[in-house]
Write a structure and sequence with these properties.
Elements lengths: L7 H11 L13 E15 L6 E7 L3 E11 L2 E18 L2 E12 L2 E10 L2 E7 L2 E7 L2 E10 L15 E11 L1 H9 L4 H14 L3 E2 L31
Parallel strand pairs: 4-11
Antiparallel strand pairs: 1-2, 1-10, 2-3, 3-4, 4-5, 5-6, 6-9, 7-8, 9-10
Length: 239
């Protein structure tokens, strides 16, 4: 018989990261953009947990990108990475261009959709292999995460009596110009950027949230009615 993990937060966040659909190797340029992610609970929800933040790295002219998410549980900091799991594309009409970042996570009985978009109105100049390249970007994108899980395969609720989750969260993606310039000077691809970010997070004491140590995870936080994670400001963060 299947019993749910006692920790709702680690279980939920692992599902909606690990379940992200691989989008293949499609890419359109050698210049990489780095966006900082912010999340905040929006509207009514039940048993919904959130990431504290994260990053998305993607080719500047559109294509497949990779995520790293961060969260805190039981006084410890964790990260989860999802390589080749998101997409940047551009929706246009005469006089208007909007950048769109989207991703879908589908794992067993859980389903989550990520969608943010923002107006292309700024320019970024990066140095790639000794050449300065300038292209148009969206400095910020806003939208939502929609997530649910029936947990229909579980025969027993958790120790706290909860079963299933559903809800929405607001999501922002904020361009990190300093990071974008740095990673292009190093000629990194999106997964290489995530490698570098993970290295920095581990140096700050974060652990890989996808690794199950076999211990009791303890109770989750951020249930219905709780506060969402603080995504911080839109400035460049530390590596």
């Amino acid at each position: 018989m299947k019993e749910l993990r006692n920790s709702r937060k680690s279980g939920f966040l692992w599902i909606i990261a690990a379940g992200m659909c691989w989008l293949g190797g499609y890419s359109a340029s050698a210049q990489v953009l780095v966006y900082r992610l912010e999340f905040e609970k929006a509207g009514s929800s039940i048993n919904l947990d959130l990431y504290d933040g994260g990053f998305f790295a993607v080719e500047g002219l559109g294509g497949t990108g990779s995520f790293v998410f961060t969260y805190r549980e039981d006084g410890k900091d964790f990260y989860l990475r999802a390589d080749d799991a998101g997409e940047l594309f551009f929706a246009v009409k005469p006089g208007v261009s909007r950048a769109v970042i989207r991703a879908t996570a589908d794992s067993d009985t859980a389903l989550a959709h990520y969608l943010v978009h923002g107006r292309v109105k700024d320019s970024v100049s990066v140095n790639v292999r000794g050449q300065k390249i300038t292209f148009k970007v969206a400095p910020s994108l806003e939208g939502y995460v929609l997530a649910s899980d029936s947990e229909a395969n579980a025969e027993f609720p958790r120790e706290d009596g909860t079963l299933g989750f559903a809800g929405t969260a607001s999501m922002k993606a904020l361009l990190q110009r300093g990071m974008t310039d740095d990673v292009n000077k190093q000629n990194l691809d999106p997964n290489g950027v995530i490698d570098l970010l993970v290295e920095g997070l581990e140096g700050e004491g974060f652990s890989d949230g996808s690794v199950d140590d076999g211990g009791d995870d303890g109770g989750g936080v951020g249930d219905d009615g709780g506060d969402g994670g603080d995504g911080g400001d839109g400035g460049d963060g530390d590596w």
